[in-house]
Amino acid sequence: MKEKTRIILADAAQDFRRMACELLASESDLDIVGETGSGEDLLELIRSTQPQVVVMDLVLSGMDGLAVLERLGS
Length: 74
Known about the structure:
Layout: E1 5-10, H1 14-25, E2 30-36, H2 39-49, E3 53-56, H3 65-73
Parallel strand pairs: 1-2, 1-3
């Protein structure tokens, strides 16, 4: 059996995150391992879950998506 692709979804809009998580969760080969609207929480989720894919908006609370990318690169 093929391993599921682990995904984190990050977007400031809670309604969008809920709908996107529902849609992605319906795919048998995908596993939503986290979702958040916060840049700081996103960094922690990435470090703790080691996802294969991060779907991220640039507009997040606290720390924007560009700052998240900068922190991940260092």
